[in-house]
């Protein structure tokens, strides 16, 4: 499979597949393709379907196979930002925000990742349910806005506002913590929870989470309440 990523800040990844090569994607992510790409919708098993439903994603995945010769398929981002290609290696999982997964070769496995401390996670928003990419092969992720990457040493931490964590390697640990101090919680304007990531590992942070942008724009939208 050969690919090119074009058109930032509204990018698209164009994948050129050899005959028989397969890609998987979330339902509705395909933008255009050659007519010899065969689509098959699959759930991948009850457990995985339930996990995706719990995370708010579509319970089905689409498989696209190049039939009778080479094929082409494109996946466009749904929001201004970046599309990044990641090489998934056995034993080195990648943990990503729920909406980041765009497409991957069929040897990449997509599952749900639960933040370990359920009590804090239930109220911590994005820090609770994420997606885990494992297996092997190339995966494409879409991120919101500009991406900043950090390499954390063992024990080194970074504190991230909810929603700004785009991805991290599976070697990192994640914990949702309350903002210290009642006054800070109520009047600080930063919310009640932060996400603390502990190394070793690599972290990708996004500058413009779509949920954050929606909250910023909401006061400017007409209201039905008159």
From TrEMBL:
Matches recorded under SUPFAM superfamilies: TRAP-like
Coiled-coil residue windows: none
A Pfam family this chain is assigned to: AIM24
Superkingdom, natural source: Bacteria
Matching InterPro entries: AIM24, AIM24_sf, Trp_RNA-bd_attenuator-like_dom
PANTHER family noted in UniProt: ALTERED INHERITANCE OF MITOCHONDRIA PROTEIN 24, MITOCHONDRIAL, TRYPTOPHAN RNA-BINDING ATTENUATOR PROTEIN-LIKE PROTEIN
The protein's name in its UniProt record: TIGR00266 family protein
């Amino acid at each position: 499979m050969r690919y090119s990523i074009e058109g930032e800040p509204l990018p698209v990844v164009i994948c050129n597949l050899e005959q028989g090569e397969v890609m998987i994607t979330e339902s509705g992510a395909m933008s255009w393709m050659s007519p010899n790409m065969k689509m098959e919708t699959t759930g991948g098993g009850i457990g995985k379907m339930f996990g995706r439903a719990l995370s708010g994603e579509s319970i089905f995945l689409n498989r696209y196979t190049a039939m009778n010769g080479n094929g082409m398929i494109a996946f466009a981002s749904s929001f201004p930002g970046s599309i990044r290609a990641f090489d998934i290696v056995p034993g080195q999982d990648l943990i990503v925000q729920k909406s980041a997964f765009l497409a991957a070769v069929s040897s990449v496995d997509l599952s749900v990742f639960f933040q370990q401390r359920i009590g804090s996670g239930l109220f911590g928003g994005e820090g609770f349910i994420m997606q885990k990419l494992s297996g092997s092969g190339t995966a494409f992720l879409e991120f919101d806005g500009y991406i900043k990457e950090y390499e954390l040493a063992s024990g080194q931490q970074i504190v991230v506002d909810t929603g700004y964590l785009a991805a991290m390697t599976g070697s990192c640990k994640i914990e949702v913590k309350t903002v210290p101090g009642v006054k800070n919680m109520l009047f600080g304007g930063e919310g009640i929870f932060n996400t603390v990531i502990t190394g070793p590992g690599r972290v990708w942070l996004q500058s413009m989470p779509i949920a954050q942008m929606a909250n910023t724009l909401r006061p400017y939208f007409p209201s039905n309440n008159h």
